[in-house]
Design a protein that fits this description.
mainly alpha, 127 residues, 85% helix
Length: 127
């Protein structure tokens, strides 16, 4: 019974972490609704969704998911290291997980920086 409760609580925590980024994206939707509500240049026949907007939303969602995965991996590796009890194999496994998670974070931040540069210089000039 304790094992079931433990698995359920872990699942609930992971689902909470996966859902949290969508609340951040909601602020952009409210800003767009305010612009529409002001009626400044609004034409019901136009569609303001562009390829750049869709690409930006997809990239932001993927990067948010990768950030959550990084945090979960670091926590998992830390718990593995703390519960190793002097077992060198478990300590090396935890260190390898941390090392790979940090490399993944560096790659993710690099991709985000490249995306921001492309967004700034290319997509903004197309508008």
């Amino acid at each position: 019974m304790k094992k079931l409760i433990k698995r359920f609580s872990i699942l609930a925590c992971l689902l909470t972490l996966l859902v949290m980024p969508y609340f951040v994206f909601a602020s952009g939707l409210l800003d767009n609704l305010n612009k529409v509500g002001q009626g400044a240049g609004y034409n019901p026949e136009t569609n303001e969704t562009s390829v750049a907007t869709i690409a930006g939303t997809v990239v932001a969602a993927i990067l948010s998911l990768l950030g959550i995965i990084f945090v979960v991996l670091i926590i998992f590796a830390g718990i593995t290291w703390m519960t190793a009890g002097g077992d060198e194999a478990k300590i090396e496994k935890a260190q390898a997980i941390m090392r790979n998670a940090i490399i993944g974070l560096i790659v993710t931040v690099g991709v985000y920086a490249i995306y921001q540069v492309i967004n700034l210089f290319i997509f903004q000039t197309l508008k």
